[in-house]
Amino acid sequence: MDWATIATGTLAGLATGFATLVGAAAILLGRGKAAARQDVLLGFAAGVMLSASYLSLIVPAANFANRAGHGDFAAALMVGMAVLVGAASLDWLRRSDRLSGIALGQTLPPDVRQAHQRVWLLVIAMTAHNLPEGAAVGVGFAADDYRVALGTAIGIGVQNLPEGLAVAGALLTLGWSRGKAVLVSGATGVMEPLGALIAVTLVSLVAPVLPVAMGWAAGAMLYIVAAELIPAVHREGARGRATAALMIGLAAMLVLDIALG
Predict the structure, then answer these.
(1) Please, what sign has the CA dihedral across residues 201, 206, 208, 210?
(2) How far is Cα 114 from Cα 109, in angstroms, rounded to an integer?
(3) Of 68, 100, 109, 167, which one has the greatest count of Cβ atoms within 10 A?
(4) What is the pLDDT of residue 151?
(5) What three-state secondary structure class fits 63?
(6) Measured between alpha carbons, how far is residue 260 from residues 25, 69, 120, 153, 154 in Å?
(7) 197 with 67: CB under 8 angstroms?
(8) To the nearest whole percent, how much of the chain has pLDDT over 70?
């Protein structure tokens, strides 16, 4: 492995991570109170995460497993088990109340603490899924197939735009300023250049575990959607708008992922 390849792969990961910040910055163009749009923002986040978990994580994870020599059934079983472990991990985190400190302490009313916990679980899931995505970019460059590598990097970078917007929008529902919401959302993308650097440097060691890591991240994201986002927007009495926002987020990610291959 030469230094030029390592540098190129890492820079590609940096570019895809930066796209998260660019997408989050779109929230600066909005007007009005975030609380009034909470159901729409969380519904949009749910749609983005549903689509990203399947097309950006589960499907590529199965492809990586196939390339590593696993048959279709073995690849499906490996990724499926990783998805379950990812969901179980987030369920443990949620049930053990590890986020009470992040939720600004025990003094908040239960419903407010629950809202904080929900959004921070979303931030953690988004951050976690960026590491294997960055690793996928790094593996592509390490394999010396620049057509595939560039296609992967462009695809991941573009689909990070709505992801950044979704996280920033969710933070706005907690009363965060737009500037802070953009910075925190953009920070979730820091994991992508790190993942790319690790993968492009240690591709022979990273590649075999990449399907498992991507499956785990997908499970974490799906758990947040099922256990937190969808129930939350339905409880708050805005099913029509929330469902429409979910479908828009889902469709936007489908178009980006499929169009960019």
Answers:
(1) negative
(2) 9
(3) 167
(4) 66
(5) helix
(6) 23, 26, 30, 10, 7
(7) no
(8) 77
